[in-house]
Amino acid sequence: MKSKLLVLLFLASPLLIHAQDTIFMKSGVIIPAKDIVVGDVEIRYKKYEQTEPAGIYTVFKEDVSTLHYSGGKEIVFPDSSPVREKELDNKTGLTFRLRVGLSENYFNRDSDDKLLAFWRYHNQDPSIGLNGKNSFRAINLSMLAAVGGSQRHWMGAGLQLIATPKKSIFGSNYYNGLNEINLRSLYYNISFIYGRSINYKKNLVLLFKPSLDIGLMSGEIILYDISYKESMISGMGSDFSLGLDWIISKRLTLNFEAGKRFITYKESHPSTSSSTGYANFYVNHSVNNDLVSINWGGFYFGAGLNFSFFAKVKA
Asked: N or C: which end of the chain has fewer CB within 10 A?
């Protein structure tokens, strides 16, 4: 009896040795494997060709199509990745990701400008400075689409609405009467967006955003107890930033952004003595004819949360 069992094992051993499991990737790659262990996120395996002790390899479950075991069992993995949406892989059309969100930002204004020189001259103090509130909130609207089925590259456009709080630029001092500056600004930021995913799961996207800034400034300048209203003064500039999108689900995206804004306003206030109805302050009329301008440029960084909608355009 023992001799017959040994003969059967001897005859079956070539089949046992050459039997293998197979991992079929969604990319089309076929991996002969053995000792497969399926986890929550990854699948661990050893290469079939390797002899013991063999190294352990891993692949993400979301990248695997099916597992074929040597005994005939088959496991099919659905495409459950929140990033690899089937709408975007449809080659018969293009799906746009429409996003709306809010962000909290910190702004460090380049304060060494003609406004500061004007302020120091009228207070007769070369060391006096201007303060202000450096944080602001923004409403973010954007439209993005993946270029190609791989979703490595993204293209789109964005609109950001920024309203700085009151006293974004502020200074107060008594010199032959009250001197005070209290200014704020409203920006319309129109941007072109290019993005590229930077990790294996493609849920981290690095963004490059050159932008056009259109702004309006309002507030008040008080000199020697006389108030001058700064009302709806327009300005135009540019903005360059780098951002990072973390796509945490199909609908929600966290965004981090840092950049620098370049925009300047020319001071102007109503005047009854002017033929145009408006007048300008000089930095120091006894020295030159430089008009007061206000620099609202500088470095900024922020973080926000966006909610996505989808719209499909058929080819």
From this structure: N
6-10, 103-107, 118-122, 271-275: which range is least confident on average?
A: 6-10
Q: What is the H or E stretch that residue 299 is in?
A: strand 298-314
Distance CA 41, CA 2 (A): 46
Highest-confidence segment of 149-158, 194-203, 286-295, 297-306: 297-306
Q: What is the C-alpha to C-alpha distance for residues 199 and 203, in angstroms, rounded to an integer?
A: 7
Residue 310 pairs with which residues in a beta bridge?
97
Q: What is the separation of C-alpha 99 from the centre of its chain, rounded to a whole number of angstroms?
A: 12
Q: Is the pTM of this model over 0.85?
A: no
Amino acid at position 68, single letter? H
| Cβ neighbours for 203, distance < 8 A, ≥ 6 positions apart | 82, 83, 197, 246, 247, 248
**Distance separating alpha carbons of residues 148 and 105, to the nearest angstrom:** 33
**41 phi and psi, to 5 degrees?**
-120, -40
Omega of the bond prior to 82 within 30 degrees of 0, cis? no
d(CA 98, CA 310): 6
Phi, psi of 280 (to 5 degrees): -130, 150
Q: How far apart are CA 310 and CA 315, in angstroms?
A: 16
Q: Tokens 């996207």 belong to which residue? A: 205
Place of tokens 């909610």: 307
As beta bridge partners, residue 278 has 270
- CA–CA gap between residue 149 and residue 153 (Å, rounded): 9
Q: What is the mean pLDDT of the chain?
A: 84
Q: For 54-109, what is each residue's pLDDT tens digit? A: 678 888 888 888 888 887 788 888 754 444 444 444 445 567 789 999 999 999 99
